[in-house]
Amino acid sequence: MIDKQILAHAAECAPQESCGFVIDTGTGQHYMPCQNIADRPTEYFEISPDDWLRAQTAGEVVALVHSHPDGLPVLSECDRAGQRRTALPWWLVCGTEIYRFNNVPPLLGRQFEHGVLDCLTLLRDAYHLAGINLPDYSREDEWWKKGQDLYLDLLGPNGFYKVTDAQPGDVILICLGSEKANHAAIYCGDQYVLHHCSQRLSKRDIYSGFWFNYTHSIWRYRQWPQYGFTAICNDMAASSSLMY
């Protein structure tokens, strides 16, 4: 029911972007449509302070909703910056589909915490922004020394296949002090990768030297969308604008 209301509101507002909130009032979730008060509502959306107050007093705000009538089904750079300010999941209407994006931490500049914010988390969050949800699993410190092969167990059964030449969005597995693949990076093109090493901030690095020499394998998601890496770039652009 709530999905039908959201889709109907988006269709009614097109070609302008629709906007609204999903509210939990204690008796269930409800959609609260809002007016887009942006100066250029076909290009972006803005919700009035009155509508924010109305949503917050109606119950718990579960998600912010808006549409991309003629755009891609991913959050834009501006969307990602806005999502961080609201600290909410954002639901995006594109065509007749609703895409749900959690408020994942910025891909760049993350503090490392094994099993919480590490190279696997970075991979999962980057792919989530591209509309692909990969499973999570608990992992011990130095699991690769305990007979486990977690990356190979993850990628093959979840729609990835091996390739020889990297394209943006591909996953590069690397051996760090081990014969097993125990580190993952996302290829960004132009010999750069996005990754998160132990005790370091997540960052872009040049894919050469050590990283290249200790590459284990390269994997591509079989149903990788053409706009997938655009979603990752939008997040990194939003991160960079906030960091400097």
Q: What's the quick description here?
A:
The protein has 244 residues and is α+β, with helices and mostly antiparallel strands.
Please give the structural blueprint.
Layout: H1 2-13, E1 19-24, E2 29-34, H2 49-58, E3 60-67, H3 77-86, E4 90-94, E5 97-101, H4 119-129, H5 150-155, E6 160-163, E7 171-174, E8 183-189, E9 192-195, E10 203-206, H6 209-213, E11 215-221, H7 228-243
Helix pairs in contact: 3-7
Walk me through this protein's architecture.
With 244 residues, this protein is α+β, with helices and mostly antiparallel strands. It has 2 domains: 2-101, Cytidine Deaminase, domain 2; 119-243, endopeptidase fold (from Nostoc punctiforme). The chain contains 7 helices and 11 strands. It has helices at 2-13, 49-58, 77-86, 119-129, 150-155, 209-213, 228-243, and strands at residues 19-24, 29-34, 60-67, 90-94, 97-101, 160-163, 171-174, 183-189, 192-195, 203-206, 215-221. The strands form 2 sheets. It has a 6-stranded antiparallel β-sheet. Strand 3, helix 3 (77-86) and strand 4 (90-94) form a beta-alpha-beta unit. Helix 3 crosses helix 7 (228-243). The chain starts with a helix and ends with a helix. The mean pLDDT is 95.
For this entry, give a set of tags.
244 residues, Cytidine Deaminase, domain 2, endopeptidase fold (from Nostoc punctiforme), five-stranded mixed sheet, 7 helices, Phage tail protein, cysteine-type peptidase activity
